[in-house]
Amino acid sequence: MSNLTDQEVGAFVGRNVDYYLKKWRSVLEGPGNAGNAGNATGFNWAALLLSGLWLPYRKMYRTAAIFYGVVLLETLLEEIVYVGFLGKPEAPGSLGRFFGLIAGMVCGGFANGWYLSHTQEAITELRSQGLPEEAYLQALAKRGGTSTAASLGFIIIFLFAMLATLSLSAQLLRGS
User: Fold this and answer.
1) Nearest CA-CA partner of 165 in 85, 59, 56, 80
2) CA-CA 20 to 30 A from 136: which of 36, 73, 81, 162?
């Protein structure tokens, strides 16, 4: 895995490749290579501040779906506990903000490592196809890079899922 070339990483990452190469260099060149990537690659402020947008923007769709699923589940649990069990009119807003901050900090702390693993998996998979060099680099660029449309799509789907979940839970919990 440590034999990723700067050219391959550059083709896959696209914009900000210098940032990621700098963050990943110690893991790629160090002993054990990506064994402890989550902790050794540094903090990603964009992932902290824009977690729900950053993950799909970097085409990490599986990780983004897990992230959104955890946030949705946590919100649903707040409703069940505070409205259903404790009989409160709603969950405190500060609790949601607290969990949002924790989720953002986890994402910011592990984002560069997750992205390195994502990059390594994609490069390994595309290498195995035995494409000619130019086609290989084009395939890396197409599979990697960024997607603003994916970020917007994920947030829109999440908002609809959140509204539907909260509406359904409100009906069930209030007996309407």
Assistant:
1) 80
2) 36
